[in-house]
Amino acid sequence: MNQAIRNAWIAVAAMFALILGSISYVQVIGADALTGNPWNNRAILQTFCQDRGAILVAGEPIAQSVPSGSDACEFQRTYPTDPALYAGLTGYYSNVFGSTGLENSMNQTLTGQADQLLMDRIRQLVLGQQPKGASVELTIDPAVQALAYSLIPDGQRGSIVVTNPRTGQIIAMASKPSYDPNKVATHSQDAAQKAMAGLQAVPGINLNQGVSGPTGALLAPGSVFKLVDTAAALASGKYDARSVLPNPAQMTLPGTSAKLPNYAGGNCYTRNEADFSFALEQSCNTPFASIALDLGQEAIAKQAAAFGFGQEAGDQLHLDYSPGVFPEDLDRAQLAQSAIGQFDVKASPLQIALMTSAIANGGVQMKPSLVKRVTAPDLRVVDEPKPEVLRTSTTPEIARQISEWMANVVSRGIGSGAAVPGVEVAGKTGTAELGDTGLNNSWFTGFAPADDPQVQVTVVMEGVDVKTGAALTSPSAAKIFEAVLKK
Known about the structure:
Strand order of the largest sheet: 3-2-1-6-14-15
Pfam families: PBP_dimer_2, Transpeptidase
Structural class: alpha+beta
Strand content: 15-25%
Number of helices: 19
Organism: Sinomonas halotolerans
Helix content: 25-40%
Low-confidence stretches: none
Protein name: Penicillin-binding protein 2
């Protein structure tokens, strides 16, 4: 009998310890992760009907809470200003599907629960006022955002990122296909579910656009990755501006019978040897594959990491971020393909923007920043992020040399579509083939003015032919350069 009682007590004690441990995990250890999970709408249901802080661009709300006129739920979250234009930034706030984008990452601030808003919460409680969150103003320029969005044709998958390379501030970040978050934020669960079903049926749509491109997937960067090879080559000490690079029309990939050809759309075929400037101007493949085979995987991977591949983007972005990928354990054939941004090399538009901005900023990569300031309900500024260094990607000397060669890409190479009258533009194009489809991801990345960079632009269009890509990338960048520099 005593043994049975002891066994029962042991079982009860074990169950009690298990329950206590589970409660402790949910309330303490895993609380932040569970609260931040976009599919967890319990926290949303607690505050869904409150007066949530606004998300602002140039002082105008792109997300706000307004009186609903309903006793059941006093406030309705709305996206009043071009909702599809900003959906990739705001995300949505839904009592059915949780929250995404800034609505998710800035939730504590928007609901007034952030630590710096403690006194505001106490004041509201003492005075019996309706709880109200803080407003978040973004670094986005509305005119540049609208221009970038308009430069992506309807029905085309594409992304454009515009930044200030000196501060890291994001001037514009636009993607298509987009959506209207108002349809998901409705109080009607049936209407929200119907709207979500319709949105999920849109080919290529990503309802948490963030910074990984419109489809949410990392993309092969193609020849824009040659900037990594160039920096690695110069950093090695084995190459300099006078180096002569082998430039055969094609090369046999080591250990295979497969051929790696030069870009057929340029003038690579006119020379069997090339310097760095010509190889970048015409986007020749074989010189950079040769560099990678000479330096080895470790050197290319180290330089890619220095530009941010495989690394985090810092704490000022406030959006989901997928760092670029440079693959491991490559054989020599795979390394040659990776050197031209193919095989399993992947990157988001923001990743390429960070790489390019580091070159523009003398080798220093700044933290990408999306929040300009946070303002309490009494209009007191409680946070105003300052520019912060994220990492050093290369030396000032190497950055300056690459900038000079990138300027040649636009002034006399295949990036001429990005030229702006009276301004020296630095750039690099990229074409990443999509298997045997005949289609590719077309890239342009660059900055201006080349000798005094004030704006960086990265453009990618997915699943286009070469002619279409050339018409949509470099010329679009030129329009954005011109618009920003005119201000």
